[in-house]
Amino acid sequence: MTDYGHDLTFGAFITPTASNPQEPVRLAQAAEAAGLDLVTFQDHPYNAQFVDTWTLMSWVAAATERVTVAGNVLNLPLRPPAVLARAAASLDLLSSGRVAMGLGAGGMWDAIVTMGAQRLTPGESIDSLSEAIDVMRELWNTRQRGMVRLDGEHHQVVGARRGPAPAHDIPIWIGAYKPRMLRLTARKGDGWLPSLPYLKDGDLERGNRIIDEAAEEAGRHPAQIRRMLNIGGAILPSPQGQLQGPVDQWIDELTEFAIEHGVATFIAMGDDPTLLATFGEEIAPAVRENVAAERRRAGTVPAEARRGTAALSLRREHIDYDAIPASLLARAVEPGDKEYDTVRHNYLRSGAPGLVLRPRNAEEVREALLFARRQPVPLAVRSAGHGISGRSTNDGGIVIDVGALDGIELLDEDASLVRAGAGATWGQIAGVLTPRGRAITSGDYGGVGVGGLATTGGIGLLGRRQGLTIDRVRAYEVVTADGELVRASAEENTGLYWAMRGAGGNFGIVTAVELEPGEVGNVIHSVMTLSAQDPVALLQHWGAVLEGAPRELTSNLFLGGNTAQGMTAQLMTVWANEDSETAMPWLEQLAGAGQLLSHQGYVMPYSSVVQAADAHHTGGGDPYSRSGLLTHLDTDTARAISRLAESGASNVIAIRATGGAAADVDPQATAYAHRHQNFSLAAMGGSADRLNSVWDTLILPAQDGSYLSFSSDTRPERLSEAFPEPTLGRLRRLKHEWDPDNVFNANFPIAPELS
């Protein structure tokens, strides 16, 4: 008995007929309507009776919404792997992660040779397939730096650029029958995909045994290879849609294949919609139910939780991996897992956590936190992983990634209140709100997650019009340190609500927030580049314009390019409506800060300014950053910033306008107490000691508080800069109430204190 614990999936194997080219498309749509998980197509590029399979897959992906598309299997000799890899990644991006790669070594050699492929021996075909898999995986691996260079006997890649990165980790399924192909599948494949009509008695057992042994020799667990089966012949319905055996017989036989032979994906070979409906609506649910019941009885471990010896050797000390809650086990990521490189880092910081837990709802967040509390290792919480400070990853600890909690719900008809999961991004929220004439100020990049920005502050491109992001939060849903799910608002848990708006990382894990958007139609987005030959004058001029401007104007300034030709300043500016007649004089005043080198200005929706962006975080050189708030850009302050830029200690200097509506809020109304300052200054550099030395000498005397999201400096004095008294004292007392054990101690920890 072999059950590897994979979730069961069901699919269709459709003929790509050219005589009626819309028929396979209709069949694919019928498969999706029947609840099947994937649609696959034969691939015979030399056969003039078939449409091209890859073209058909692209068409079907556009004509469906949910099903995965794959070749069954693609003819590798006639599809160069580098081209195939880019095509697959592109279709995966366009279909939001609905592509799988089914590969074969190539058959029908006489026909293939007529199409220009070289005839290979069986051994050469296997070697060619092995090299092709390496080519594809390397091109998809954009996390690795440098060009792809592979010098194989059959496939050579000389300095190819990596990418595009697919939307998800595209699985590679291999059609294999003979021992060498089976061993290749064990070493490099994600799935074994034979066809039942081609198997003889005992071939499934023999194939599983060969794959299991070869996988273990390669340091993999056998469960890392999904077992799949194209099913035809006597156990399928006839072409007329009439079963050749009762449905119950089908259910029993497929259940046996799953439990006794580990088959987890069943693909029905046939082009009849009644067949697909029966398979998807009657057979698949019953087989799933039977297998789930047997697994509960047997205590079967999910496949995703099984790791080979190579992965187990990379586990970190002091984490009880065997005690991971069952609800989190299948999505947990460890250092030896293939997904690890996609979750270990954040936007700018490299990380090496010992475990990444990825809960899907608030209850699983609670379970993740209670598990993490029992492990004597660091704990980090991540929403989207963009945080410049880098506190959403760690070394050897646990990361609770709430990215799956990304739902966005309008709570009233006019979109004046919206509920967003902590893992949603502000670009996604802008996309939902913009058609309804609303927006929320939310930083200046759409890939930032809700959970981080909505608990720290939120200086954004609508900030002078709308205030800080936290000023728009009407309620938080929070898992507290003791594992309780609570709601914090002006009516419930009011102390926690106060603390979450500015110091939320110290008090719990946010699972969702309720936000009050403002009315915003189209905006004017301006990007200017100015020569900064006199940076002091430029900064003073820009700052004075901002302080005197209407609240519709918000602008960020990025100072850099300290070369022989001098510095430049890039201005990213938003005017919070489309009234160009009123906006233009103010934009012209900004342009007067220096010699204008370029200017682009557009009327556009706010969702085009803060666009949705996927996270492909690979670390970014681990820069060190400092941050501070400034009240005015007077002569002394502008001169200090100019000297910082000239020092070479920082390669990125950003000044963001705040103030405006943010100043309307009482400094004691939220844990973010900085309401009179007009600017936020941040700088990044390669050396912590060098940047700290220059910053402490030049900037600290002019600094008026800190905005912690942009700072890597963890020295104790930063805490009082971020939370001046009496704010800090109140936070310490609330910390004792809500987190007396200081569980949340990774984000500028506030020590609990008795009242």
UniProtKB/TrEMBL annotation:
Keywords: FAD, Flavoprotein, Oxidoreductase. Residues 348-520 form the FAD-binding PCMH-type domain. PROSITE patterns: FAD_PCMH. The keyword Oxidoreductase applies. Its cofactor is FAD. It comes from the Bacteria. GO terms for molecular function: FAD binding; oxidoreductase activity, acting on paired donors, with incorporation or reduction of molecular oxygen. Belongs to the oxygen-dependent FAD-linked oxidoreductase family. This is FAD/FMN-containing dehydrogenase. It comes from Bogoriella caseilytica. The lineage of its organism: Bacteria, Bacillati, Actinomycetota, Actinomycetes, Micrococcales.
